[in-house]
Design brief:
The chain is an alpha+beta fold. Helix content is about 35%, strand content about 15%. The protein contains seven helices and six strands; from the N terminus they run H-H-H-H-E-E-H-H-E-E-E-E-H. A four-stranded antiparallel sheet has the order 3-4-5-6, sandwiched between helices. A two-stranded antiparallel ribbon has the order 1-2. A hairpin with a 5-residue loop joins strand 5 and strand 6. The protein is elongated, with a radius of gyration of 23 Å.
């Protein structure tokens, strides 16, 4: 092992301890490394702000059936959504904007959730979008599908969700449509 590590350009500060024979009854008891996971709110923030699908898939696996229990608590109709995976990449996923708005309303006072959303014009998937608005949101994009859901901050605050199905094959066009709708909603919410 030590020779192979050196061949790969990896140098050790000390010699490796001799390994027991494969037939030995006692495996070596030595911790090689310890890696701590970031806190859950940090994982959720990366998932939402940067639309990190691998994180979303793993969070769904960790949570298991818990989201289904929350849907009924938040009075979200089961027939309004079907979640096959955590990332939203499966074509069999379906949900109605109404359900997304209900979820956003239920989470409105959860600061960890709100802080996990991309800030328009500042970070995440909205860094170069909707600058000058008071929007925090999550984006979603597949071929011909685009979504934007979040909050327009102000008085009054508005939870919103816009989903385009069977849209233009160019994601840029769908983003422009979503952004135009979000801008109009933002203007109407922040009128004097």
């Amino acid at each position: 092992l030590e020779l192979e590590l050196k061949r790969q350009g990896i140098w050790l500060e000390s010699e490796l301890a001799p390994q027991p024979e494969p037939n030995s009854k006692h495996p070596p008891e030595q911790i090689l490394a310890v890696v701590y996971s970031p806190r859950l709110k940090e994982l959720v923030s990366t998932t939402n702000k940067d639309s990190e699908n691998l994180y979303a898939e793993n969070l769904r696996l960790i949570l298991g059936n818990q989201p289904a229990q929350l849907w009924s608590k938040w009075q979200i109709e089961k027939q309004d959504l079907r979640l096959v995976d955590g990332s939203g990449l499966a074509r069999r996923n379906s949900l109605k904007p109404r359900s997304v708005v209900q979820l956003l309303q239920a989470m409105a006072h959860n600061s960890s959730f709100r802080n996990s959303l991309a800030i328009a014009g500042q970070d995440g998937t909205l860094k170069s979008r909707l600058a000058g608005t008071q929007i925090i949101a999550k984006t979603g994009t597949l071929d011909g599908i685009a979504a934007l859901a979040g909050y327009i901050l102000g008085a009054p605050e508005l939870a919103f969700a816009v989903i385009i199905n069977h849209g233009a094959p160019q994601p840029r066009h769908n983003r422009q449509v979503l952004d135009a709708i979000a801008l109009e909603l933002s203007r109407s919410c922040n009128l004097p």
